[in-house]
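As a warm-up, study this chain.
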Amino acid sequence: MKKALITGANKGIGFETAKKLLENGYFVFIGSRNPENGRLAVQKLNEIGFENVEAIQLDVTDIASVKNARREIGNRTEVLDVLINNAGINGGFPQAALEAKAETFQKVMDTNLYGVVRVTQAFIDLLKKSEKPRIVNVSSSGCSLTLHCDPDWIYYSHKAAVYPASKAAMNMYTINLAY
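Now compare it with the structure written out below.
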């Protein structure tokens, strides 16, 4: 059975991704910063018939938490087939380039970029043992440099400085990681 870890999987896109992977026969580790939210997500999945799922406390901004999650998952499996770096924060609004505080940038980067780096580096040894390892770093078109420069883009006038900067940096990390 293939195994996947999804960060920020107790709700939203992460939770829905967990359901899809479970439907396709994966064992899924639900990474959740808050252990109770992770347990509740697993309970919801159990209630709709999924059993191959386990909550793992994982705060991507805390290296001790990342190392502990790696240790826990490593005690349960020697191989990780899929890592989905989904955990993310937007930093709140407004996000005007000249008004957003440096501390807001730092907090968002710590989750959306450095968290991806921490988790990827911590789990790469388990991923390398998979026949076909996959790393998915969740982003969106709203973080595209090309689109944000195109005056014909439907959201061109909707600028936010913090979140898109963090995800654009993560996208560059992803390109380098793939290389």
